[in-house]
Automatic annotation (TrEMBL):
Annotated Pfam families: ABC_tran
Keywords tagged on the record: Amino-acid transport, ATP-binding, Cell membrane, Membrane, Nucleotide-binding, Transport
Subcellular location: Cell membrane
Record-linked InterPro entries: AAA+_ATPase, ABC_ATPase_HisP-typ, ABC_transporter-like_ATP-bd, ABC_transporter-like_CS, MetN_ABC_transporter-like, P-loop_NTPase
Keyword ATP-binding: yes
Name of the protein described by the UniProt record: Amino acid ABC transporter ATP-binding protein
The keyword Electron transport is annotated on this UniProt entry: no
Amino acid sequence: MSATDSVLRLEDVWKAFDEHTVLQGIDLAVAPGEVVALIGASGSGKSTLLRTVNLLEPVDDGRIWLGEMDISDPAVDVDAVRARIGVVFQQYNLFPHLTVQDNITLALRHVHKYSKTRADAAATVLLERVGLAAKARDHPDRLSGGQQQRVAIARAVATEPDLLLLDEITSALDPELVGDVLDLVRALADDGMTIVMATHEMAFARDVADRVLFLDAGRILESGTPAEVFGAPREERTREFLTRFTA
């Protein structure tokens, strides 16, 4: 898949922290509207892979393309790249001093230069979609963890990004709050959003992803449809992981 056919493309990407190599020759191409789930044990490189795509970590070798732009070029405009990518982390990272509505409109107004009226209108639509219209004037500390994460997702998609990165977005939630957040991601996927998500929710990955990548020690050890990876994994290491995870 060429840069013109893909939203995201990684070519032989390597990353190390001191003497520890975290990513080892990652090759990945993500098509428009595709949902790719990254699974693997803690320390397998899932979060680091996402952080390199959002330019939070520079790569040591290899190239990363966002559409036709080589975003691994050291001269790239980092702010311009991040304006095209929505990111949601394990922690909600909402600004505590801003209302829910202002959290969503901040980037719209200051990065994308929306008028206040236009930004507020967009926030209203998004908050209705995530079921939090009544919370627009509240501050984040008045919300449950699941509500905060839904606001974080709304903020990430408010700018209509080319790509949405989700990094274990349910790991900090109480189990009873996970479902609402995953339902929202499922709806975004159904709408055609291009998503790369690191997740430990195996059932969700099986249900929503178009493709599942199993990472092990910084390598993509196995890649395929959910039916292939979960139903008939080729690699013994994948089988061991899934057996332990679902035991």
